[in-house]
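Why predict the complex rather than its parts? Because the way molecules touch one another can change local conformation, and only a joint prediction can capture that. The input here totals 1034 residues.
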Amino acid sequence: MYKFGTFAVKFSSGFVCSSFENCNMAARVICSLPYEQISNEMANLDVKTRLGANEGKPQFVLKTPKGTRDYNPKQMAIREKVFNTIINSFKRHGAETIDTPVFELKETLTGKYGEDSKLIYDLKDQGGELLSMRYDLTVPFARYLAMNKITNIKRYHIAKVYRRDNPAMTRGRYREFYQCDFDVAGQYDAMIPDAECLKIIHEILSELQLGEFLIKVNDRRILDGMFEVCGVPADKFRTICSTVDKMDKMAWVDVKNEMVAEKGLAPEAADKIGEYVQLNGNSELIDRLLEDDKLSANKVALEGLKDMKQLFVYLKLFGVEEKIVFDLSLARGLDYYTGVIYEAVLVQTQADRETKQNDSSESVGVGSVAGGGRYDDLVGMFDPKGRKVPCVGFSVGIERIFSIMEQIVEASDQKVRTTETQVFVATAQKHLLEERMKLLAELWRSGIKAEIMYKKNPKLLNQLQYCEEAGIPLVAIIGEQELKDGVVKLRVVSTRDEINVARANLTEEIAKRTCQS
Amino acid sequence: MYKFGTFAVKFSSGFVCSSFENCNMAARVICSLPYEQISNEMANLDVKTRLGANEGKPQFVLKTPKGTRDYNPKQMAIREKVFNTIINSFKRHGAETIDTPVFELKETLTGKYGEDSKLIYDLKDQGGELLSMRYDLTVPFARYLAMNKITNIKRYHIAKVYRRDNPAMTRGRYREFYQCDFDVAGQYDAMIPDAECLKIIHEILSELQLGEFLIKVNDRRILDGMFEVCGVPADKFRTICSTVDKMDKMAWVDVKNEMVAEKGLAPEAADKIGEYVQLNGNSELIDRLLEDDKLSANKVALEGLKDMKQLFVYLKLFGVEEKIVFDLSLARGLDYYTGVIYEAVLVQTQADRETKQNDSSESVGVGSVAGGGRYDDLVGMFDPKGRKVPCVGFSVGIERIFSIMEQIVEASDQKVRTTETQVFVATAQKHLLEERMKLLAELWRSGIKAEIMYKKNPKLLNQLQYCEEAGIPLVAIIGEQELKDGVVKLRVVSTRDEINVARANLTEEIAKRTCQS
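Output of the joint prediction:
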């Protein structure tokens, strides 16, 4: 069984956090473990509740649906921090945001996902329209553009999507998960918005401090040109493309075998592909391929290579070219890409490095954390007249990032606050509930975040203990004497220092001592 | 046909906004009109797309599912403002947040909503668990507490819920809509968290500046005691309760008729109820009822009345008692309430008052905007051992609030910004794309929100026009001369003033001129 607390990782994340000492174990495990373990946890939970059910209560299973999870307050605090970093970056680049319904007409999704269509959740036919849960945010975006005849927009969209994946087979994947999408729609000069997308991915991954990353880029046109010059029949482009996509997980010999044995490609063609797809580099590689007689004689490949060269010029101007690798093996699964494609991978995180020493199979840290590309034809599929709106964008794989952030938090010894309460109003004496409520209302009116204990006569120790546990920095203590003197005793929880503050100055003093972002 | 632009309403909302001159008409109509009109819009849309489909493209309907809508960037800006106000208030009161999946096991929802269960969306049985879309956030909250054995929490949850309501019958209601819930779970002294809930509703409605509001309160125990002393048989309490709930929409004579003719209550019993439920007032009414021999002799009613008296003491301490009305006709639909219940209603909004002059049937402004109460038994329904966790909370009816905010924005002549871009990097000369990109990257690195046009050689006029439309306050203009001199020409869009700023000082100058929250 996988154990928490086996990490001894330190991160310079600048994030105030702690081990989850108050949090429910089952919920924690569900959120950051691969599926086998989640299933085990759920099975255990089932047994427990069913056992309980024998004691006279109706029998039911107390769990969330397979592949889904609750977020507890500490997980929400982490989620909020990650979202804020991402949204700030999107806004820094001038993006607006939209929202679409969580389900679409079934026919809106039909024919957009190829083989993956079997993973779409359908709603029950309850005598109305046939509906399906959205599978990604890109198809609803294209539907939105076509429906509203929008030809220019730079938008982000952060929302949950749904895939009936077999969670035991795809590690670290949920059936309900967030996507953070950024897309630019519009007819613009080549590679300018494409370069900005890569810049934003670079910005987000740098700011989240997850560890070393690389962004691989390629172009569907270069792939298609390459297939053509290698002698792949046109009707095999897509299927060979999806085999190439496995090169990050399989050795070339196995990839070649799949091409030849399973997909019926001529071995010579596969060997030629092999020479290309093992290449990766930067703008020098582009120059070398531009001098490759066969490839540069192919019109589509040449277009792709010229644009790729232009892209690298822009990436250098944006100061991000060092982390970008032109990788001819990058293919990406989705059918709708038409030009540049990219994928950001974590090379190795700190958490990952440490974890591997204990259990090399359990890593969630390494792998793809963002991906995207250009899809110039998708909106046209929705437009009644087939009008095209060129688009480029990407999606951040936020669940994996949450998992890594949770590991970082788990490993650090700082406290995650789940509230923003600045001051707790307390008393050591009895019969002062009304006075506490009066002071509380004064603080709220001044915009101070404040709480009391919902008891008539709570013990001072309990009140102070609550503040320590919740990370509340200040306590405003009142008693008969303070009320008579028109003061409040302000206690700093961390140092236990206490000073008397005139009631009239209390708000200002609290605000000064708890300046918040 | 309902027309926009018929309002001439001014609001002191402090909200920067404008008419939606760039926004798609269909999308606007969908978001702020009652259902009849939405259906018409959708029907029109269908006809259009089906017509388009005849021109050689496959026939499909370009729309969102019935009862759902997209949010465009301007609507999202309004939504963000409303959510921020609400979340700030929740945080001011020390609330944490959680999230739960959008669907639950079907059996989790079974038996919680009485007759309304027929409105639950089920997912198709695709060979796994039977799932249903969540109908509210309260039942998932109770499931979360029981599953994680949590006995104390103060949490908010903002998320979409799903109801297969007939949109033509329930005006202004969507099938997918947001709820903003705040709840306190835990065993505390009577009425303290209950009073805080009312304080928070008061805070939110005051800060949103929607118009005059009142918060009606009552207690299920007072209602039950009243039914008992009026001679209602115990098995008719719930059904008579739901008839009482209609008193805000029906005259007493019709309410009485329903009780007697439809529900078989003795006319004398109905008359006795009639005497009570037409009462409303404040703490004096409570005193009067405490002196009512019959009611105060009823143990349950007496408990309710004593707590109500205590509640009003606390509400006065919190400074909100003026807007609270003790109303014996308030019953609330849901079965799970066990104590105090409350509902906030807008008495009449500004928008409403003006609208009525034109078309009295189209008001979306008046009605319930928040409601809640105490439900001490719901968590126990999920606990295998039936352990109770007392809870009190409320839900803000955010869709109605969006509609009102949209009317306010529509009626005002200020601009709603959908981006936060501080500066646009422009040029009047050709061949300066790379220089624009370099400056842009400098600004991004300093955290400045900045954009360029994605064109190699855009016209200056187009660049300036874009800034005016998007509400971008500053333009950083570069040309050969500026580059040579190491300066940037900073133009203020609103005044058209231009000054030269040394490139080294540019970031600071922009930050100073666009200080953002």
